[in-house]
Specification:
Blueprint lengths: L2 H11 L7 E4 L2 E4 L20 H10 L1 E4 L5 H15 L9 E4 L15 E5 L5 H4 L5 H11 L3 E11 L10 E4 L7 E2 L4 E7 L10 E3 L11 E2 L13 E2 L9 E3 L6 E4 L5 E3 L8 E10 L3 E2 L8 H14 L8 H8 L1 E4 L6
Antiparallel strand pairs: 1-2, 3-14, 4-5, 5-6, 6-16, 6-18, 7-15, 8-17, 9-14, 9-16, 10-13, 10-15, 11-12
The chain binds 2-oxoglutaric acid.
Cofactor: Fe cation; ATP; L-ascorbate
GO molecular function: L-ascorbic acid binding; metal ion binding; phytanoyl-CoA dioxygenase activity
GO biological process, one term: fatty acid alpha-oxidation
Length: 334
């Protein structure tokens, strides 16, 4: 019997085949559809995911874990964020992004215009998020035991200034990554407060992780679009959507091909979330020349050359190797 068949048998042994419905947030998938796909491609054997959670990820490309990060830790991450915004600490390599509409407003104090911190691997407090054992336990079910934290973000979605720029266009995170294999990469995204449709929760298109990487570019939005917020032009508008309403500390793990984005923040508060993209340290870099990823490669190289005062000779993969940090096991490749 093949390994995949063995794995399938293990999962099915745990299930009551006639009654189980796999739920992830508001989606419900009947297990019967699973019998037509007798391989478990997206998850690895581990004790972290229940059989239901495992099947849900296989089918939908995401799994939501309630209450995974403590209030206390989230409050500490929030304080670290505020210290950075106030200029009390300087973090090497950190990219501080500002909302395209709010950054130009005279009425908003500077720190309030920060829409995202990216690459916080050198901030010990924020980076502690990426090493939380309760997150790594789940991450290992996707990456295996050698785990790199490749991409870190604290997203501070601002109240929309009326131009709809607080939206994040629908995209696949793999667009940004020159490493593979795709199924050994996973994102963890933790709500730092209640997130719902009013403040622009994540929106996902379940099952799209089973498709290919699509072409991405800046959307043609009248009010402007934030730097590096590429979106997919041709996803099906009819595809079922799930709005991931979450409480503080809830965490969603999702596949890098899952099409997702987030809506406008229609409240007066800033909607905060913290996230990390993990990859197996056994992944390898690829050359994206001549592929749909060439546009983001050029943009990232330009930003990196400017940021580090280089002459443009930096390779796309170097920008990743430089930022990636081992959080478990051995740094075997990436
Ligand atoms: O937190 C959000 O609003 C969306 C974040 C996201 O999808 C990203 O930055 O890739």
């Amino acid at each position: 019997m093949s390994r995949a068949a063995d794995r399938l048998k293990m999962v099915l042994n745990h299930l009551d085949r006639s009654t189980v419905h796999v739920t992830a947030s508001s989606t419900s998938t009947q297990v019967s559809s699973y019998y037509h796909n007798p391989t478990l491609r997206y998850t690895l054997d581990s004790d972290a995911l229940s059989p239901e959670q495992r099947l849900s990820y296989e089918e939908n490309g995401f799994v939501l874990i309630k209450n995974l990060v403590s209030e206390e830790d989230i409050d500490k991450f929030r304080m670290a964020f505020e210290r950075i915004c106030k200029g009390e600490v300087r973090v090497p390599g950190l990219l501080v992004m500002r909302d395209v509409a709010i950054a130009k407003s005279e009425f908003v104090p500077d720190q309030k215009a920060v829409s995202k911190l990216q690459d916080f691997q050198e901030d010990p407090e924020l980076f502690r998020y990426c090493s939380l054992p309760q997150i790594l336990k789940y991450v290992e079910a996707f990456t295996g035991p050698n785990i790199m934290a490749m991409h870190t973000m604290l997203i501070n979605k601002p109240p929309d200034a009326g131009k709809k720029t607080s939206r994040h266009p629908m995209h696949q995170d793999l667009h940004y990554f020159p490493f593979r294999p795709v199924d050994r990469i996973v994102c963890s995204w933790t709500a730092m407060e209640r997130v719902d449709r009013r403040n622009g929760c994540l929106v996902v298109l379940p099952g799209t992780h089973r498709g290919a990487l699509k072409e991405h570019d800046y959307p043609e939005w009248e009010g402007g679009v934030n730097k590096m917020y590429h979106g997919i032009r041709d996803y099906s508008a009819d595809h079922p959507r799930v709005h991931l309403e979450m409480e503080k500390g809830d965490t969603v793990l999702f596949h890098p091909l899952l099409i997702h984005g987030s809506g406008m923040n229609q409240t007066q508060g800033f909607r905060k979330a913290i996230s990390c993209h993990y990859a197996s340290a056994d992944c390898y870099y690829i050359d994206v020349k001549g592929t749909t990823q060439e546009n983001i490669e050029n943009e990232v190289k330009e930003i990196a050359s400017h940021k580090y005062g280089l002459d443009g000779s930096i390779r796309f993969q170097d920008t990743w190797a430089f930022r990636g940090r081992l959080v478990q096991g051995e740094r075997t490749s990436l």
